[in-house]
Specification:
The protein is built from 26 helices and six strands. By secondary structure, the chain is mainly α. It has a domain of 218 residues. It has a two-stranded antiparallel ribbon with strand order 1-2. Strands 3-4 form a two-stranded antiparallel ribbon. Helix 11 packs across helix 15. The chain is globular and about 85 Å long.
């Protein structure tokens, strides 16, 4: 139930090194909802409302709070100016602004560097010194790839796509380092671009593209998948993790799918074949099993040698294999993908109460022929999404916290990648093929203090001039009560009690009376110093970790 979502933070009360025994301790107790109060009762009441809310359109115009809810979930929390674009819009209008009106995605003009086209020899065939040099170079290139993507997250406006790229990166996973092997960063860059290009389009096309993606072929044994000795890794994950989930296929289906996918290779190294150019996938006819396959009850016919070509095998076996999944297991596939979308964008541990909404999403997905954009449009414009019980209950991923806070404060985040690494979300290098566990694993007695430390370092790094200018963007910033209320609404997903608001007002005033704030704000040094105190206190609050 909803109360359990909030009660999770109670462990921080006893474990956080930031806890004090003064008024701040009172704030923590209240924030953690460890004792029943009026806010809890109201929150619990609203859980009942969620049972009646589905994918029917949300009919109210968006106020600032609901606009913030939308951009927190669908992007990395844009700055204050971008949020203003959504206020007063219908939910449908706002979603069109945030996502764009169609599935077309403009790829970034920047790249991580010229190294994306550098190709080396196969380090496994090289001497030890050469192998170490290549792997060391890859490590540096991988770091620049992560930094490039983090910067896209940090700087994008509307339409916003990078949160979707992050979702698909955790769905169609490929690791950089695995089983004493490496995925060349050049391949991972191209995969990242594929996820971006297809992030709103036809899911079947995305699945086909990833099936033949060089990084995926390298990661899940596709480059080893050969007639007479099929490698079943990708065929199994294609169904178990990427399309239908367990229970929708048999071991025989896995074996037959692996046979259909034999013969595909990635051009990884300069001492290996590259018939389609560097880092592009190619087909080896002699390695492909041309016999008939029986997959999910459907026959993929055998083919003669003249028809055993890259073009014909891609369309007649790879694409056919993907399409068969959605033809023969339409309900399982639609519900499996929509459940993952729901867990990522709405709530990571849905109860049975959400089952009906997920089924409605699956129905939209099927009716749209597995187009991704329509199901997202339906979800983010729905009454269910804006239900009070779905606001402020999702734990921020490290990327959401690190990038989101920097965007909210209007600052750069030079150490974003290293911070996310320490918070256990290594971009483009998830821990397993299943991606990141997420949910409550994002917060622990190790990672929570690191989040607070990162946030406080961001604030300390801001100049007084920058902080004062940041505060002045809020309406009625000269009124201390209005300013604190505006900052709280911007940084926190749920309203705070009056006692907490007043404690933050007191922290900002630092002993001065309310009426002196307007004069203090005109002095950048005085205002900046106080704003640092206020924000440093706010980022220690556990509920700032929620979205």
């Amino acid at each position: 139930m909803v109360m359990q979502r909030r009660d999770f933070f109670s462990f921080l009360l006893s474990s956080s090194a930031e806890r004090t025994t003064t008024n701040e301790n009172h704030l923590y107790t209240e924030q953690l909802y460890v004792a029943p109060n009026d806010d809890d009762k109201e929150f619990s009441k609203k859980d009942t409302a969620i049972l009646q809310s589905g994918l029917e359109p949300f009919t109210q115009q968006l106020d600032r709070r609901r606009a913030l809810h939308l951009v927190r979930r669908l992007s990395f929390t844009p700055n204050y100016t971008l949020v203003n674009q959504l206020i007063g819009k219908t939910a449908q209008e706002a979603v069109s602004i945030v996502l764009g009106a169609n599935a077309t995605v403009t790829l970034p003009t920047s790249t991580p560097g010229t190294w994306i086209n550098d190709i080396t020899e196969n380090p496994d065939r090289a001497d030890n010194d050469t192998r170490s040099q290549i792997q060391g170079r890859w490590g540096g290139q991988f770091g620049s790839l992560q930094a490039w993507w983090a910067n896209l997250m940090l700087t994008e406006g509307f339409p916003a796509k990078e949160k979707l790229v992050l979702f698909w990166s955790g769905h169609f996973t490929s690791e950089f380092a695995f089983d004493d092997m490496y995925n060349p960063p050049q391949l991972l860059f191209r995969q990242n671009q594929t996820l971006r290009k297809d992030c709103l389009g036809d899911f079947r096309q995305l699945t086909e593209d990833i099936t033949l993606d060089g990084a995926m072929l390298n990661y899940l044994g596709g480059t080893l998948n050969t007639k007479g000795s099929p490698n079943e890794n990708y065929a199994r994950e294609l169904m178990e993790l990427f399309t239908t989930g367990l229970g929708a296929y048999t071991e025989g289906d896995v074996k037959e799918a692996a046979r259909a996918l034999t013969g595909w290779r990635a051009s990884r190294f300069n001492d290996e074949p590259r018939p389609n150019g560097n880092f592009n996938t190619y087909f080896v006819p002699s390695a492909h099993d041309t016999g008939a396959k029986q997959f999910l009850g459907v026959t993929i016919p055998a083919r003669e040698a003249d028809f055993n070509t890259e073009l014909l095998v891609r369309s007649g076996e790879v694409r056919r294999l993907v399409n068969i999944i959605f033809e023969q297991r339409p309900n399982e596939a639609a519900r499996f993908i929509c459940t993952k979308l729901y867990r990522f964008f709405v709530y990571a541990n849905p109860s049975s109460n959400a089952s009906g909404v997920i089924q409605q999403m699956a129905d939209v997905f099927r009716r749209s022929n597995y187009q991704i954009l329509p199901v997202l449009q339906a979800l983010f414009a729905s009454a269910h999404f804006y239900d009070e019980a779905n606001i402020g209950v999702q734990i921020k991923t490290p990327a959401e916290f690190v990038i989101g806070l920097a965007r909210q404060l209007g600052v750069s985040a030079a150490n974003a990648v290293s911070t996310m690494n320490s918070l256990e979300q290594v971009l483009i290098d998830p821990p397993t093929v299943a991606g990141w566990d997420g949910y409550r694993t994002w917060l622990s007695t190790k990672t929570y203090p690191l989040r607070v430390q990162y946030a406080q370092n961001l604030i300390r790094g801001m100049s007084n001039d920058a902080l004062a200018a940041w505060a002045r963007q809020f309406p009625q910033a000269e009124n201390v009560q209005s300013l604190v209320s505006g900052i709280v609404e911007f940084l926190f997903p749920k309203p705070l009690s009056q006692s907490r608001l007043q404690s933050y007002v007191n922290a900002l005033l630092s002993g001065a009376p309310d009426y002196e704030w307007a004069g203090i704000l005109r002095d950048n040094n005085a205002a900046g110093t106080r704003l640092k105190t206020l924000l440093s206190q706010m980022v220690k609050a556990p509920d700032i970790q929620l979205t």
